[in-house]
Amino acid sequence: MAGRFSPDRPHAPARSATLRASGLSRRWTPPEGPYDLGLVLGPLRRGPGDPTFRAGGDGTVWRTCRTPEGAGTVRVGRDGRDVVAEAWGPGAGWLLERLPGLLGADDDPGAFTPRHRVLAEAQRRRPGLRLCRTGLVLESLIPSVLEQKVTTVEAYRAWRLLVRKYGEPAPGPGGEGNEDEHTRLYVVPDARTWALVPSWEWHKAGVDAKRSATILRAVRVARRMEEAAAMAPAEAAARLELIPGIGPWTAAEVIQRSNGAPDAVTVGDLHLPGIVGHALADDRDADDAAMLELLAPYEGQRHRAVRLILLSGRVPARRAPRMEIRNIARL
Q1: Boundary (domain end) residue, out of 247, 273, 298
Q2: Among 271, 267, 294, CA closest to 115
């Protein structure tokens, strides 16, 4: 079931959104069963200071996008069983038309059958998990490239600095209407702006030449990259991997979000094989091959299985030093 849609007023425009002076609004009823808005949208957040994402203390989530129709901001929250969204900017209509997909309407949690106790328990404790689908590629591709071979601290810092410097204040009260520069929301730069970021600004943000070159190659064919969001996951991954510097790790991280791919496994990760091995076989030394073998019973739903493992909290204790945090801007 895709859930039920109902406009805020009985005579809504054909675009399924109600025009208000403050923006556009939409009300959507998720399919029957548990539903956790934070779990659904959480993977779109790139660190606590992400200028494109904000989680409110009241359970609302703010998110900004560079849609095909322009910049947009959407705020989503719960009203009883329903999800209520309000959007601003040229991309508001696009965002609200695709709201159900973003909120997991295309996902089918019933297709997953836990075969390990740890997964059954995680599913029981966090039953509201659904996989989102943004329909946008570059907004996930660029931060995923920034996360290649570095700590998340470094990658989140680079994303934060670059978006605030080269993005634009988001439309609506969270961006243009927010006077606090520390909490102001920004929309990611468009492809042309990314292409014009000077080499020294990448350096100042702590991004080495290899990662910045990969991003530049991707934004030069931005339209072709965005087409991947409408493809089957395997085809989408193959499209992304045509770009030198984008491999299976990066492609999986992107299509998990852009395509809502339930089977996209992140291979090549430093920690994930050990986490999966520890959770499913008490083998913290598992490599990618062992991880894929352990996940084989969940073929078709392997990404969901990994999400549940991470939500279970059953991760091995660290026994090696953390990756060193570098600051190439000082080199």
Answers
A1: 247
A2: 294
Distance CA 251, CA 49 (A): 24
Query: How far is CA 171 from each of CA 60, 128, 193, rounded to the nearest angstrom?
Result: 17, 30, 18
Tokens of residue 237, six digits: 């991954």
Helix (H, G, I), strand (E, B) or coil at 67: strand
Tokens of 152: 């998340």
Q: Rounded to 5 degrees, what are φ and ψ at 140?
A: -100, -30
Encoded tokens for 251: 């492609």
3-state secondary structure of 263: coil
| Among the listed residues 2, 180, 200, 6, the one whose alpha carbon sits nearest the alpha carbon of residue 85 | 6
Separation CA 98–CA 272 (nearest Å): 31
CATH classification at residue 50: 3.30.310
Evaluate whether 219 touches 195 at the Cβ level (below 8 Å).
Answer: yes
Kindly state the tokens that stand for 307.
């999400």
**DSSP-based three-state secondary structure for 134:** coil
202 lies in which domain range? 138-247
Residue 281: Cβ-neighbour burial (10 angstroms; 0-12, 13-18, 19+): middle
Judge whether residue 37 has pLDDT over 60.
Answer: yes
For 219-253, how does the pLDDT look when each residue is reduced to its tens digit (9 = 90+)?
A: 999 999 999 999 999 999 999 999 999 999 999 99
Q: Yes or no: say if 167 and 188 are a contact pair by the CB < 8 Å rule.
A: yes
